[in-house]
Design brief:
By secondary structure, this protein is an alpha+beta fold. 46% of the residues lie in helices and 20% in strands. The chain contains 15 helices and twelve strands. Strand 1 (43-49) and strand 2 form a beta hairpin. Helix 12 packs across helix 15 and helix 13 packs across helix 14. The relative contact order is 0.08. This is Bacterial regulatory proteins, luxR family.
Length: 382
């Protein structure tokens, strides 16, 4: 390899920056300038081109930023990027220069050169397109003004060193972003689900749990969380729960469902808790690389609706929403009257309006509608 084409420290530093940016998307900021500097150039752009006219600018040097007042003009020329069109015809992953793509005669008559490139003081280019995601092409272009001279084979080789690492880093970045979205989705769903959820291993050790589970551990007298293990105070119920957990873990890597997965936890002078166990397959668990079981517990005495959401859903007044929530939480009209210090006739009058606004005809229908509505997902205090 000739001395002038040997990789320099700037290239190795850039490769490291690519992978740092894959892990932390904020690391892409300023990377176009470093790419331009590594190839002794004045500008660089990294963008995505999808089907039709779709494009997305990922990163560019400061001198390629276009004022807001001219964004429509810039978008037009990004969509009409002659270099991207011609590079794609050469094939993804092949490093090309402007001399490969456009003849001098075409440069002189091309609006792409005369209007777009001349405004940016760009004339020479070395770059490539590469597969990014599905039918989307990634585009890397590095540029110089005309007086700086054309790109040579040494420049092609430098970009050829960078390109596969850039492509891989962008792919990893998408994977990390997708994983982050899935994690955020799971955490938000767990926070709002109307059940206590524990993820446990075969010994009952808790890998993670949601807020409902933390509340249940504090308030319930039938289960404990000692030394990081979920346990039921009744030894027979504890053995039954662990049997369900072990059965789930045996089926976690296959399609077979465990034989039986639910049980009731009786309580003195209160309605029983209900417990359900389901497998969480290896690789789906956020905090463990082993199969886990989800132990889900519901308390029938937990509020099933908040007045804020009931008012939004059905147009109830504040008083109607309070009474509707009480009814959905299992109180009779007489019990609501005593709890709210109003007369039974007042409660029944509000109930008639609740039935009309919810489109139901009987109290049981309204209670079922409210109990199964999205009002249970609201975690804001009334």
């Amino acid at each position: 390899m000739p001395p002038d084409s040997a990789p320099d420290d700037r290239l190795f530093g850039l490769i490291g920056r690519f992978y740092d940016a894959a892990a932390d998307a904020s690391g892409w900021a300023g990377i176009a300038g470093e790419i331009a500097g590594a190839l002794d150039s004045t500008s660089a752009v990294l963008k995505l081109h999808g089907g039709g006219d779709d494009f997305r600018l990922l990163e560019c040097t400061d001198n390629l930023h276009i004022p807001d007042s001219r964004q429509d003009w810039a978008a037009h020329w990004h969509r009409q990027d002659l270099w991207v069109e011609r590079s794609a015809a050469f094939g993804p992953g092949r490093v090309v220069t402007d001399h490969d793509l456009v003849s001098p005669a075409e440069q002189r008559r091309s609006g792409f050169y005369r209007e777009w490139l001349s405004a940016l003081d760009i004339h020479h280019m070395v770059g490539a397109v590469f597969p990014a995601d599905g039918d989307v092409l990634g585009v890397l272009g590095v540029h110089r003004p005309e007086q700086a001279g054309a790109y040579e084979d040494a420049d092609r080789r430098k970009l050829s060193i960078l390109l596969p690492h850039l492509q891989r880093a962008l792919g990893l970045g998408r994977m990390f972003a997708d994983a982050g979205i899935r994690q955020a989705f799971g955490e938000e769903a767990l926070a709002r689900i109307d059940a206590a959820v524990f993820a446990v291993d075969r010994l009952g050790r808790v890998a993670t749990l949601n807020g409902r589970a933390e509340t249940l551990v504090r308030e319930a007298d039938v289960l404990t969380l000692g030394q990081g293990r979920l346990a039921l105070r009744d030894p027979l119920l504890q053995e039954r729960m662990m049997q369900l957990v072990r059965a789930c873990l045996l089926t976690a890597t296959g399609p077979t469902e465990p034989p039986g997965s639910a049980m009731a936890l009786t309580r003195t002078d209160r309605l029983p808790l209900t417990l359900f166990v389901a497998p969480l397959r290896a690789g789906m668990a956020r905090l463990a690389a082993q199969p886990l079981a989800l132990v889900m517990v519901r308390d029938p005495e937990w509020p099933v609706a908040t007045t804020r959401v009931l008012r939004e859903l059905f147009g109830l007044t504040r008083t109607e929403a309070v009474i509707a929530a009480d009814l959905a939480n299992g109180l009779s009209p007489d019990q609501v009257a005593r709890r709210r210090a109003v007369g039974p006739a007042t409660v029944r009058s509000h109930l008639k309006r609740i039935l009309a606004k919810t489109g139901t005809h009987r109290q049981a229908e309204a209670v079922a509608l409210i109990a199964r509505s999205v009002a249970a997902f609201d975690r804001q205090a009334d």
